[in-house]
Amino acid sequence: xxxxxxxxxxxxxxxxxxxxxxxxxxxxxxxxxxxxxxxxxxxxxxxxxxxxxxxxxxxxxxxxxxxxxxxxxxxxxxxxxxxxxxxxxxxxxxxxxxxxxxxxxxxxxxxxxxxxxxxxxxxxxxxxxxxxxxxxxxxxxxxxxxxxxxxxxxxxxxxxxxxxxxxxxxxxxxxxxxxxxxxxxxxxxxxxxxxxxxxxxxxxxxxx
Length: 208
What we know:
By secondary structure, this protein is of the alpha+beta class. The protein has seven helices and five strands, in the order βαβααβααβαβα. The radius of gyration is 40 Å and the shape is rod-shaped. The two termini are 23 Å apart.
């Protein structure tokens, strides 16, 4: 931290404008003062503060001239980036996604009871020649079956309930998703507004 003695630029600009107007009205330029009053203000170098692990309180940052205010970690924080980060880190959204995955699996299981069922089987038998005489001592058989449920009230009811639960989980997930996006965007915009208001207020206080 140190002292800043740079004259306020808005005050300098107003004085120069008045001097030019006096010259235009006929006043000699050599009679005009060329010095400006300066205000001594606290100067804080945030880059150095971060390097030594010091975090200045807000009261100091508000009153001081601050160097390197925005070069914290080199990242550019955008609205889209904030929304993506919020979606990635929201635990409520992660739970909603997991519940939706389970509901979809339950729906697939319930639907499988309405689909054609294929069964495959194999059988092999061995015989002792001394007992059965001459002939084959080993036989193998294979079976292939196809079945289809034509009507089952319980199976259709299970599938209907599973689909309704899945649609409910989709609506829940979408609601959490939209709420997360809305809150992240609103917070980001609130911060921008607050930063602009602080900057305007600081410039106004320094011009007094």
